[in-house]
Amino acid sequence: MGKLSKKMQLTTLGAGLAVALTAGVMSTTVIAAQTNLSTEVKAAKGNKVGLKQAITIATKHASGMLISADYDEDDGAENGVYAIEFSTASDSYEVIVDAITGEVVSTNTERLDRDDINDYNVQRRVKVNVMSAIGIAEKKIGGMTLEVEFEADRDYSDHPLYYKVDLLKGDEIVGINIDANTGETFANKYKR
User: Model pTM?
Assistant: First the structure.
């Protein structure tokens, strides 16, 4: 075999090896992207108890109006938990519900401060309540609600009172805002 032939074989072998390595790296990257879901998404996908069911469970252990509900995959529990908050005109009740078993992990009661009382009174007067906001979000986006929180701020001049709702849809967490008086949805955001 001549020198030119050996050089061509080595060049061809090198090019083939480079292609194989590139393909390997690319497929590893794709697999890593598929398995590198956020811990919140992974944990939420394993839940056996949904947010609405957790709210129903929490309602039996608290008083007042439902203020917010939040899924947390890392709150000192082995499984993820839902933190469900209720308020009366003077007190706040937080009920922590295990997202796998549905058991109440803990309850906590605190006196509201002046700002919390103001927020409670504002939320009490809106036309769309928390459960309605969850229903609107699930109808618009699909998926499973992980968090809902009332906001009374000026982040959106056309929507000073709104609910922020995060939903698990496939392998993504989708955020949507719902006007607390009209039920109109706005400012959808996709997160990972």
Answer: 0.75
